[in-house]
Design a protein that fits this description.
3 domains; elongated; alpha/beta; 21 helices; 59% helix; two-stranded antiparallel sheet; Transcription Regulator spoIIAA; 5-stranded mixed β-sheet
Length: 598
């Protein structure tokens, strides 16, 4: 049979999450060929190979045992692919989340991390239902580039501990304190861990130069584990930290090393115990939920930005078109469900998505296969995965951080962008490194908005003409003023326009405001215009407003600015305004030789 039977999702209400799953619905709407299935299966397996070690490494970097990263890739990756709005995005734990999740785990424990992920999921669903997907596109590029590069620096700093085998009493939350703590810990450097880390890092760098058909992560981490195991056999004193030596799990009341060989089990997130202490450090209370609200909002915002940015990149690579609101709802539901199966925060990952597309994946089926592959690998290879060196996983995340920083693009922006954009970029980068994402995005967006308003204000002008205009039938006499106001008349530009209007001298008989180039006006602009009208009326001049565009006209109507014979008039054209003020000043005589403007 050439096509798999069509799956019908019609008849569902528009607000239904399944109805919003446009990617999977459109995939099966016109029939899904077996050739497409073969391509998606191959792509899903390739992505699964990449996601397997990466999911464990990212969970560890976030302060959680490695199996929770696998649970996230399995459950979150499957649900988001099923309900999301992107055809080729692959979701799971991502490097961008590390700098947000690690402090949450340190302060609230694993249960607190899962509760924050669940709360972020609810926020994402609300964002999708409110159709805010398109609004996130208004976050300026220097902001996203700046905080992404800052995240990359923070991730790299967090990996140096395991990469070099350093012994830290505690891991500080912020970058400067972390750097000083690791500098003080340099005498504790463990050369065996450092050596395995360097070996793995070298393979990760060199292998793609020879071939990209086999993922570098698979080769480098496998050979790193084999080398550590072999050296341990020949040299009994040789020892490196591995997943099995660092982590353990509970099964039927007994503790076992490594990661469990089992399906994700249904759990209550607030009852999850911390592996290190074997007890639950989270106390469910209003105060704890309030304390987690800001971190949850940060997770939701970063998840929304990352997933939609990933979807845009994927559309460009695969020629597809995603639904941003459906993608937010899918991401939200995935993060709502995943903590109940031991997972943490998930979002779309650009690197895994790009790998999926390059391997031939074109539908959400590839992401579903990726989740199933990770599950199968966990069930069959758990003991072997436990032998993976921690230094090798740290080396993998160092490469992820380097790729994430996109140093070439960062320096390109610094070199060619306007100075205001460079200021925003560097501000976001430094705030992300020194503080956190909430501060970085808040400062960046605020700076970008202020600079944008300054640029728009520079485009707005209010000038007093010399009494001549292409649309006039004849030049105006000196005691009739003509002001041309051009550009958006909003709060950023109102003061500039008001200053220009205050330059008038003498006692004019009439004043014409030509508003044909004012596309929009806000309340501050309206107040400035009203002030100018009152000023000229106090001089005894008649005020005429002409060529008003629809949006400013609606605002003037709501403000009850309307015709007042002898004091204020609203005209449709400058010619009509000229004829009107001629009644006030009869010296205005049309030049019959001048053609009438269209």
């Amino acid at each position: 049979m050439r096509y798999i039977q069509r799956i019908s999702l019609s008849g569902l209400p528009d607000w239904s999450p399944i109805q919003c799953a446009t990617a999977i619905r459109q995939t099966f709407r016109g029939g899904y060929s077996l050739a497409s299935l073969r391509r998606d299966v191959v792509a899903g397996v390739v992505v699964g190979v990449v996601a397997l070690p990466l999911s464990m490494a990212l969970a560890i970097a976030s302060g959680a045992p490695p199996q929770h990263g696998l649970f996230t890739a399995i459950v979150g990756g499957f649900i988001i692919a099923l309900l999301g709005g992107s055809f080729t995005s692959v979701s799971g734990p991502t490097a961008a989340f590390v700098v947000l999740l690690a402090p949450i785990t340190a302060k609230f424990g694993l249960a607190g991390l899962m509760i924050a992920s669940l709360m972020a999921g609810a926020i994402l669903v609300l964002m999708g239902v409110a159709r805010l997907g398109k609004l996130l596109r208004f976050i300026p590029h220097p902001v996203t580039t700046g905080f992404t590069a800052g995240i990359a620096v923070s991730i790299a700093a967090l990996q140096l501990k395991d990469f070099m085998g350093l012994q830290l009493d505690h891991r500080p939350e912020h970058f400067p304190e972390l750097v000083f703590a690791m500098a003080r810990a340099l005498p504790t450097l463990h050369w065996t861990d450092f050596g395995i880390g360097l070996f793995t890092l070298a393979l990760l760098i060199v292998w793609p130069k020879f071939t990209k058909r086999v993922p570098a992560a698979l080769v480098a981490l496998t050979l790193g584990a084999v080398l550590a195991w072999g050296l341990g056999l020949f040299f009994p004193s040789f020892h490196v930290d591995t997943i099995a030596s660092r982590f353990s799990y509970l099964m039927d009341g007994q503790t076992f090393p490594g990661i469990p060989r089992s399906f994700p089990r249904l759990v209550l997130p607030w009852n999850v115990v911390d592996a290190a202490t074997n007890h639950n450090s989270f106390s469910f209370s209003i105060e704890q939920i309030r304390d987690l609200a800001i971190p949850a909002l940060a997770i939701a915002m970063l998840g929304a930005i990352e997933s939609l940015l990933c979807a845009v990149v994927a559309d460009g690579m695969a020629g597809t078109k995603h639904d941003p609101d459906a993608e937010l709802i899918g991401q939200g539901i995935g993060n709502l469900v995943t903590p109940f199966f031991g997972g943490i925060a998930a979002t779309a990952a650009i690197a895994r998505t790009a790998t999926n597309i390059r391997a031939g994946g074109r539908t959400p089926v590839a992401a579903l296969v990726h989740a199933l592959f990770v599950l199968a690998a966990m069930l069959s290879l758990a003991p072997l995965l436990g032998q993976m060196p921690m230094a090798s996983l740290a080396a993998l995340l160092l490469i992820v951080a380097w790729n994430m920083s996109d140093l070439r693009h960062f320096t390109h922006i610094v070199r060619v962008a306007p100075r205001s954009d460079v200021v925003v970029l560097l501000a976001c980068f430094s705030m992300m490194v020194l503080f956190d994402m909430v501060v970085a995005v808040g400062v960046g967006v605020t700076l970008a908005a202020l600079l944008f308003m300054r640029r728009m204000a520079e485009l707005t002008s209010a000038k007093l003409t010399d009494g001549d205009h292409p649309h006039l039938l004849a030049p105006l006499p000196p005691d009739v003023l003509l002001y041309e106001i051009a550009g958006p008349l909003f709060f950023g530009a109102a003061e500039k326009a008001g200053n220009a209007l205050s330059l008038a001298t003498g006692r004019p008989s009439a004043v014409i405001f030509w508003l044909g180039a004012v596309p929009t006006m806000d309340i501050t602009g309206l107040v400035a215009l009203e002030s100018a009208i009152r000023k000229f009326q106090a001089m005894g001049a008649m005020v005429v407003l002409t060529d008003i565009q629809p949006e400013p006209a609606a605002l003037l109507s709501r403000a009850e600015i309307k015709d007042d014979p002898g004091r204020l008039a609203i005209c449709h054209s400058l010619q009509e305004a000229e004829m009107l003020v001629r009644l006030v000043d009869p010296r205005i005589v049309p030049d019959q030789s001048k053609p009438t403007a269209a």
